[in-house]
TrEMBL record:
This is carnitine O-palmitoyltransferase. The keyword Transit peptide does not apply. Residues 174-751 form the Choline/carnitine acyltransferase domain. GO terms for biological process: carnitine metabolic process; fatty acid metabolic process. It is found in: Membrane; Mitochondrion membrane. InterPro entries: Carn_acyl_trans (IPR000542), CAT-like_dom_sf (IPR023213), Cho/carn_acyl_trans (IPR039551), Cho/carn_acyl_trans_2 (IPR042231), CPT_N (IPR032476). It is an enzyme of class 2 (transferase). Belongs to the carnitine/choline acetyltransferase family. It is a multi-pass membrane protein. Pfam families: Carn_acyltransf, CPT_N. It comes from Littorina saxatilis. Pathway: Lipid metabolism; fatty acid beta-oxidation. Its EC number is 2.3.1.21.
Length: 763
């Protein structure tokens, strides 16, 4: 409560006898504690920066260099080839001492210089090694001699015990693909989707663009790639996310759900307290960079830049563009319950509160029978609808007084917790139960999730949990990573027999602070309008969560096919059976092999995919179908690898389009390409990103994954997670207002596709 006390920590009055100064010692102590925490963080940051600055070498290696150089110098040899003597003669600070002391200091300076040069050389060499991606294309075959040598060098120069950001400076930049290659890849990706006349027209437009305006735009893009850390990521965040004026609820935010086969407790406050405590300790690990970076195949590191803004982050609405604001620290969380908002402190005397202490505070909120003030219960609807009305309302009604103070408490919180009042659960005998779960996580009522916050943790009365995350600060794998850690640590910490938190109360935590609001009539009218709009958006979502347990990656791997490619083929087969045609398909891939990389698109509907689907519908011979499947899967895997290694199509075209707008020259080719709808938008949620979750030992810990809303009005959004050996969860969304789509219908077609594809291996 330091910031509350600071306002009254010091006061004075002027009297005829002089100035009477009053100091509140308790408040000053709180201010002191806050300052100590702040300075400890700064010192820790400096320490981490030094460690990362010399990585992959160790700070102790400086001592090794100094010892060796001093030993050689003492033995009468000059390994510096005269540099030490030059330093002694020409560095003023050194030559002011006696000869022996000067020689000693000169030797130290030379050792330091040699150490720095060695570190820079090793880091540059490591960066060169990480630009090699041939290993990815050999993963499931015999490794070439070149790749074996590369692996050996990576293990030698890759460093030991890295911190979260240790590899950042060694990661290569995302390369700009050649214009010709991107044009060729684009034309190949749409050839099977367009009629011959339209394809020939696009081929002509692509040729004109490549020979004309494209060259100019490419030069600007190459210039940006030299100057910027990543030529895509800042524009992607700005133009795809922050400049979008449409509602972020459903259209941008995504969600995650619980591990469905287990439920550690049915106590709402207890489950919430445990998870809040785990998330705060996870935040501390991120701040201190104690979280291990993700390393593919225990060899190749991924970029960790996105972790920084997971906590203490909010999206601020603007008229033309939103702003993503990240606060260095936060000492509280915001809690929403029955339409009321509370500020809950999470520290006491330089330590994080224990779960049992957080539980006591949350229980007070649950026991509080006070009603929300007028407009408070639907306040979050402002964050759910179009951005411009919210931006204007924030300026008009939340720029001063208690409204500003309360809004600050939400926006500056570490994260938001919603203690819901209606139970949601998994019921194997009721398929609609999971659908309700998904609806609650994706949008809730439209008024009980703060959609601008980096994430909202949702806890139901029966102990089930989930989250809703804003998308601009990071991509889903970052949230999935923390969620995986949270679910597993929740199991390890556990609960008492009565379902309550472990531990003993040693400190009576402060009462939650009820946030106060004062809404004028125009603000109340706007909140009600937004509530109605949010409700309409929610009602238009058709969402189905399907747990496919007939078989999973265990069987798929026996077919010698990539599980992801197999699932993508099943989705294409399902869509073709639904629509009678193929469509432009988006599959999200990551580019975190590069510094500040985010995502790239895999255009997974290929000529080979179409050939396999048509052969399936024509009931071709099984051996022919298997041959076509493996060919299509191989093509898909190569496209995925290309996307991961910077040879994708869509981010390059997107950046060329942005440059064209900056130079004021429109391109008919780019305008048409970027207006093509993604009627099938897909994404795989990664599982087991850490070694904390052992599904072989605890198979019931499989996570249900998460999902997102449809991208096109007449299309589907499909997210899937390969959970263990025998289960795949699908999260299917579309719009009720579209007469040609249906989430349950598409789910049934996916199941039939899986059954039919398995049958070709069983006959």
């Amino acid at each position: 409560m330091a910031e509350a006390h600071a306002a009254v920590a010091f006061s004075f009055t002027v009297t005829p006898d002089g100035v009477d100064v009053n100091l509140n010692h308790e408040a000053l102590h709180a201010v002191w504690e806050s300052g100590v925490i702040s300075w400890k963080k700064r010192i820790g940051k400096l320490k981490n920066n030094f460690h990362n600055g010399v990585f992959p070498a160790s700070p102790l290696s400086l001592l090794f260099f100094v010892t060796i150089v001093l030993a050689i110098k003492t033995a009468g040899w000059d390994a510096s080839m005269g540099v030490i003597n030059v330093l002694h003669l020409h560095v003023p600070v050194v030559n002011s001492y006696s000869y022996s002391v000067g020689q000693y200091l000169s030797t130290l300076l030379f050792a330091l210089f040699l150490w720095l040069v060695t570190i820079m050389t090793i880091r540059y060499f490591l960066k060169l090694l990480l630009t090699y991606h041939g290993w990815m294309y050999e993963m499931h075959g015999t490794l070439s001699l070149r790749t074996k040598l590369w692996l050996g060098l990576i293990r030698i120069f890759g460093g030991r015990k890295p911190m979260l950001n240790s590899y950042q400076a060694s990661l290569p930049k995302l390369p700009v693909p050649s214009l010709h290659d991107t044009m060729q890849r684009y034309l190949e990706s749409v050839e099977s989707l367009m009629e011959e006349e339209r394809y020939n027209r696009m081929k002509k437009l692509a040729k004109e663009f490549e020979d004309g305006l494209g060259r100019k735009l490419q030069r600007y893009l190459i210039l940006k790639s030299w100057w910027a850390t990543n030529y895509v990521s800042d524009w992607w965040e700005q133009y795809v996310y922050l400049r979008g004026r449409a509602p972020i609820m459903i259209n941008s935010n995504y969600y995650g759900i619980d591990a469905l086969l287990v439920k550690p407790t049915d106590q709402q406050a207890s489950r919430a307290a445990n998870l809040i405590s785990i998330m705060l300790k996870y935040r501390r690990e991120v701040d201190r960079e104690e979280l291990n970076p993700i390393v593919l195949n225990k060899t190749v590191p991924l970029c960790s830049a996105q972790y920084e803004r997971q906590f203490n982050t909010t999206r601020i609405p603007g008229i033309e563009t939103d702003t993503l604001v990240h606060f260095k620290d936060s000492s509280h969380i915001a809690v929403l319950h029955k339409g009321r908002y509370f500020k809950v402190y999470i520290r006491h005397k330089r330590r994080l509160l224990e779960p049992i202490e957080i539980e006591a505070m949350l229980q007070r909120i649950l026991d509080d029978e006070a009603e929300p003030v007028e407009g408070e219960a639907h306040l979050a609807a402002l964050t759910a609808v179009e951005r411009v009305p919210w931006a204007k309302a924030r300026k008009d009604f939340f720029s001063k007084g208690k409204n500003k103070a309360s809004l600050d408490a939400i926006e500056k919180a570490a994260f938001v917790v919603s203690l819901d009042t209606e139970n949601i659960d998994y019921d194997p005998n009721d398929p609609t139960a999971l659908d309700s779960y998904g609806h609650s996580m994706l949008h809730g009522s439209g008024c009980n999730r703060w959609f601008d916050k980096s994430f909202t943790l949702v806890v139901f009365p029966n102990g089930r949990v989930g989250f809703n995350a804003e998308h601009s600060w990071a991509d889903a794998p970052i949230s999935a990573h923390s969620w995986e850690v949270m679910i597993e640590m929740d199991r390890r910490i556990g609960y008492r027999d009565d379902g309550r938190c472990q531990g003993t109360m040693v400190y009576q935590p402060p009462n939650p602070i009820r946030l106060e609001w004062d809404f004028p009539k125009p603000c109340l009218d706007l909140i009600e309008t937004c509530r109605i709009q949010a409700q309409l958006l929610c009602e238009d979502v058709d969402l189905h969560i399907m747990m496919h347990s007939a078989y999973g990656k265990g069987f798929i791997k026996t077919c010698k096919v990539s599980p992801d490619a197999y699932i993508q083929l099943a989705l294409q087969l399902a869509y073709y059976r639904s629509a009678g045609k193929f469509c432009l398909t988006y599959e999200s891939s990551m580019t975190r092999l590069f510094r500040e990389g985010r995502t790239e698109t895999v255009r997974s509907c290929t000529k080979d995919t179409c050939a396999f689907v048509k052969a399936m519908e024509a009931k071709a011979d099984n051996q022919e179908l298997i041959k076509l499947m493996k060919k299509a899967a191989g093509t898909h895997q190569n496209l995925y690898r290309d996307a991961m290694t910077g040879a994708g199509i869509d981010r390059h075209l997107f950046c060329l389009y942005v440059v064209s707008k900056y130079v004021g020259q429109d391109s008919p080719f780019l305008a048409e390409v970027l207006s093509e709808p993604w009627r099938l938008s897909t994404s795989q949620t990664p599982h087991q990103q850490t070694d904390k979750l052992d599904l072989n030992k605890y198979p019931d810990r499989i996570c249900g994954g998460g999902g997102f809303g449809p991208v096109a009005d007449d299309g589907y959004g499909v997210s899937y997670i390969i959970a263990g050996e025998d289960t795949i969860f699908f999260h299917i969304s579309c719009k009720n207002s579209c007469p040609t789509t249906g989430a349950h219908k598409f789910g049934r077609l996916i199941e039939k596709s899986f059954a039919d594809m398995k049958a070709i291996f069983n006959k």
